[in-house]
Amino acid sequence: MAQETNQASGAASEETAIGSWKTSVTWAFRSTRVVTAEGLRPATLLVRSGRIEEVTSWEAVPTDAHLRDYGDLAILPGLVDTHVHINDPGRTHWEGFETATQAAAAGGVTTVVDMPLNSEPETITVAALEAKRGAAAGKAWVDWMAWGGVVGNHDQGGNEAEIAALIEAGVAGFKCFLVNSGIDGFTWVDEAQLRKALSVLVGTGLPLLAHAEVAAPIDWATGEINAGVLCSYDGRVDWRRYWTYLASRPDKAEMEAVSLLIRLAREFPTPLHIVHLSSAEALPMIRKARKAGLPLTVETCPQYLWFAAEDIPDGATECKCAPPIRDKANRDALWKGLIDGTIDMIATDHSPCPPEMKNREAGRFDDAWGGIASLGLALPIVWTGVTRRLKDRSRSLELLAKWLATEPARLAGLAGRKGALAAGYDADLVVMDPDAEWTVAEADLRFRHKVSPYRGAQLHGRVLETYLRGECIYWGRGEGGVRGVIDPKAHGRELRRTV
Fold first, then answer.
1. In sequence order, which residues have a C-beta less than 8 Å from that of residue 82 and are 6 or more positions away?
2. pTM over 0.70
3. Which residue among 41, 249, 305, 379 is least packed, with the fewest CB closer than 10 Å?
């Protein structure tokens, strides 16, 4: 369960007269293509006081309702992005609540769950969580939650003593790294520390999310590359080549990490979640674990479904992320894993940084920050990709809602509140033109720094309107070069998970 608080988000304590009027009437959102909890069909959503009161037939519009008829446009549940690095407080020159949540709103995302890094302090104590709440005050355009962090290994002490207090404080769950995170304040965890954390989490229902790579295969491969044994070109090492970076993060690093998590899932009856799965080689063992009934869920990201190693130019460090983008065959296998249900959901892993940290001038992948900025672009990216692979557009819309809304909401403990168009849910919805064709330009990127490999991507499907609890927070029907309008008021609230 989750409860909301207005205090952390800076929501106004008193509504204006027009705001009171809005909540006292019934609004009817109607389309021939509404992705309801039962599937795609013509329907009308009856909304009052920010909640969906009823999902009824297309014709059943009350005479006193204010009708918004969207014709054949698609209406989907507001998206839930469970993997976002807002980097606030402490690194707002990387991103920040204001720009991140506005980018989310423009992309149909109505709830984000913030990762415990790369903010400073990292969210590994209640004091750090309270600092984050202070940073979000008045700056959240969409609803938000926070993941807590689990850190520590045999060389550096852990924060297991903080886990219970973080649960009490309302985090959605916990995130850890099985390999160096790149942030000194967020240390990787070894198996002993994983066991300590899982022992505390058993019985709470809160998930432990893991960056599933281990260090040994990466360290070995990097050593071989620098020694000229792997990926040498005319006897020299070239870190400007993407294939060099790819060779330094082998599939084996993910395979060993996933194997460890599956082994622990057999011992600890508590949810485990694999973030940003990149290697399709892990899918068979994941299928086997799921068939055995283990409490394991998996996400992948738009970058692994859109890009392929063969197409990444030398020096294109905006494409660097960890785990890495792999080859075309791997990409196709990930799509198959999504469609057959082995992979549960898609999250962006929006991980921005200042442009200079991408080291674009030198173009060396070993010196560049690893992270891809994509918040607000997932819906058209995934829609374009899935419709290239499935002829059934109705099923494609249903899968879109499942991958980007329903399953992420379930992971964050928001089932029954977010992620579906059903009675009793928040009236979070996105209106999309599934037939619109467009090219991503700088003006379409609402996040702080406009460094993204998606610039120039030709996409299908465009967000026209985004509603948060029945309130229009983004209007994307701009004309004359206008790319869309964000509501000037921040309506977002913090949602706290309760156990």
1. 112, 113, 172, 299, 345, 347, 408, 411, 412
2. yes
3. 41
